[in-house]
């Protein structure tokens, strides 16, 4: 069976993938990425980010942002939309700052009203705020936090709700899986949003993990349950599990499969974990070697689009549920 179909049988809403807007001329890639029994959900890898959708103030562009939503609609795939208030991939006119509180509030509200409005009705989820905590578990310094403190959180969620009442609204971050200081800070962020009366539905665990250092299935479930205890749903939104040296040995490929099974298994174990998205179809196009030179091979399909041992591990854990 294929992964999305198995995931649905196991009680999840979806198993999906990010799709890169710049690889659409690779027909083998697109044919696998649009197989809705394998990947029943798509996330645009880059096209909906601020630098792409509002490159200058008040000038909105959806050329790249529309690519993956169009593919998902044509193939009956669920769409997770990504992302709105994020410190990275901002155009210079935003990241350079110098705004008053009220000017920046208006900039955020205008951006979200336009972008979420453009996709209204099409997005099952929106990653409204991305990566609000830094790697040490402090609030991340950004134009948003530095200008507004934590007020940008509720402001962003309220604006998204106003523009698309039907999308489920997510706070998304990485390294939540380790249940440490960063998880504590994102837990606090979720509570701040709720205490402000703003409409948060879920927390996304990105799941950018490392082969051999991935927490156990039960530890992962414990971290997920901290958030479902707040009445929120959770999802794994950007999973990849990278080898820290390449090429991987046969035993490293087995460990990678076990780590993927821990991630997917933990979602199956937690009521309120709705789905798993991998951050790419194939190792061929992963972001990892650009950011972590010498590392990678983090996905379920290799450079030749052949299934890796991790594919079989994911398939087995879903089939066993
Ligand atoms: O848009 C330019 C293009 O004009 C130029 O020709 C090309 C040349 O390299 O670069 C293009 O921009 C790149 C962009 O991806 C689109 O390909 C950027 O340099 C590159 O930095 C960017 O990387 C993306 C990264 O986010 C940026 O932060 C990765 O593809 C994307 O996978 C990655 O995804 C993030 C999630 O959104 C949030 N969580 C972490 C995750 C991994 O970093």
Task: Name the features.
321 residues; alpha/beta; TIM Barrel; eight-stranded parallel beta barrel; 9 strands; 17% strand; globular; binds ligand G3I; Beta-xylanase
Mean pLDDT: 98
Shape: globular
Q: Mind telling me which CATH architecture this is?
A: Alpha-Beta Barrel
Q: Within the largest sheet, what's the order of strands?
A: 1-2-3-4-5-6-8-9
> What's the CATH H-level homologous superfamily?
Glycosidases
Organism: Clonostachys byssicola
Domain GH10: 1-317
GO molecular function, one term: endo-1,4-beta-xylanase activity
GO biological process, one term: xylan catabolic process
Could you characterize what this model shows?
This protein has 321 residues and is an alpha/beta fold. It has one domain: Alpha-Beta Barrel (TIM Barrel), CATH 3.20.20.80. 40% of the residues lie in helices and 17% in strands. The protein has helices at residues 3-9, 27-33, 50-53, 67-74, 92-95, 101-118, 143-148, 151-163, 181-195, 217-228, 250-269, 288-291, 309-319; strands at residues 14-19, 41-44, 78-86, 125-130, 168-173, 202-205, 208-210, 233-242, 273-278. An 8-stranded parallel β-barrel has the order 1-2-3-4-5-6-8-9, surrounded by 6 helices. Strand 7 (208-210), helix 10 and strand 8 (233-242) form a beta-alpha-beta unit. It is globular, with a radius of gyration of 19 Å. The two termini are 14 Å apart. The model has no long low-confidence stretch (mean pLDDT 98). It binds ligand G3I. Residues 22, 45-46, 88-89, 130, 206, 238, 287 line the site of ligand G3I.
